[in-house]
Amino acid sequence: MIATKGKTFQLALALTSLTVASSMALTLMPIVTAELKDDLGLSASQIGLLTSVFMVTFALGALPMGLLGARWGGRTLLLGGLLLAAGLILFAVSRSYPWFMVGRLLQGTGASAFVPVSNALIAQSVDSRRRDWALGVFGSGTGLGVVVALLVMPSIHKAGGYRAVFLATAGVALFFTLLAALNSVVRSRPSARGADVSLGSLLRGIGAIALNRRLFLLILINIGVTANFVGLLTWTPSFLHDQRGAGLALAAYLTAGLGVAQIFGNIGGAAAMARWGKPFVLAAGMIVLLVAVALIPFIPWVAVVLVCVVVAGFITMALFPPVLGSIPEIVPRMEQVGPAGGFINLVNPVSTLLAPWLFGVLLDAYGTAEGQRGYLWGYELLALFALVGATAGVIYVIFGRRGGHGGPRSQGPDE
């Protein structure tokens, strides 16, 4: 059990570095979109599907990676980092759409290990008084990756095209994987006291929590969050370019404000749930997200659009700590934290596959030029996902006040 703030920060930093790499990989598509369209002839829906493939494998791989993490511990993160780097390199050396798809599949599979395994490491290794803080630091890596990608990669793209962008990100992924490997907690085996990590026991535990009503509501909230996170990240730069007159590079830089908001969103979400409780933060955050996203296509001013995007980005990451922090309160045993987190991600294809892809389909069908309605319907699609999450958040609050619960509160090793 980590008892000092310094060692907690060292672990959180190691875990955060991996989320930086995965977030950078996710964010690359808006930067290379114009080149893939103009030079390789890809359509908007094909490019949207490249993002969807990443997110689908990110979601589907989370449960097996969580199960593997329960047996291997943090060493599963090192496997994920190597797979992520391999996928980035494959994309860089390819020039055909099928190989692009394989590269994105590998990237998503590698990145799928980071959230469930890191959450389990924090729950098992960090003193309970510092877990919320550690989750806030860990989650900030997502926003930091967005900022780095959108501020640095346009210049690399201008100098060397999409190949240079993906090779540079592969180098970052390999470096951060090495950084994580230096941490003793990451290299250690699972430390939950009395843990039964046999495959049969873990699968039985997943079967039990799959019927939990609180978990179902968390899943709906998470779907609303991820749909908006991926959709905003994928299509906002081109929206600013096509309908608000911003250059593609400028649009990418402006959208970097989304990443900055996400960095502070994680920290703000951790502080908010400590003050007002997880259910209230989840419900209120989803309502604010719904309003912000629904307004974007109706606002003619770039600056005000960016305000809505920044607010939405802040909220998507502010909800990250309370979603992860709720998992140890749902599962009956600490060793089930990782697999349960993977189970939540398992259903994310509902949002991560459909949201960016359908947004692209709507653009193809209704047009992207100024005065055409493709982006309007695309953003309202994202707002619909937020509405589902907001409804689940309100029910989560009501359910909690009535004393509903999914199981005994999990006790960590320090309790």
Mean pLDDT: 83
H/I helix tally: 18
Secondary-structure element sequence? HHHHHHHHHHHHHHHHHH
Main β-sheet description: none
Structural class, from helix and strand content?
mainly alpha
Task: Note down, in words, how this protein is organized.
With 415 residues, the chain is an all-alpha fold. Helices cover 81% and strands 0% of the residues. It has 18 helices and no strands. Helix 1 packs across helix 7. The longest helix is centred in the middle third of the chain and has 51 residues, at 131-181. The model is unreliable at 405-415 (pLDDT under 50).
Helix and strand arrangement:
Elements: H1 5-40, H2 44-60, H3 62-72, H4 75-93, H5 97-111, H6 114-125, H7 131-181, H8 184-187, H9 199-209, H10 213-244, H11 248-276, H12 278-295, H13 302-318, H14 320-330, H15 337-346, H16 349-352, H17 354-366, H18 374-401
Helix pairs in contact: 1-2, 1-4, 1-5, 1-6, 1-7, 1-10, 2-5, 2-17, 3-6, 3-15, 4-5, 4-7, 6-7, 6-15, 7-11, 7-14, 10-11, 10-12, 10-13, 10-14, 10-17, 10-18, 11-12, 11-13, 12-13, 12-14, 12-18, 17-18
In short:
The chain is mainly α and 415 residues long. The chain has 18 helices and no strands.
Main features:
disordered C terminus; 415 residues
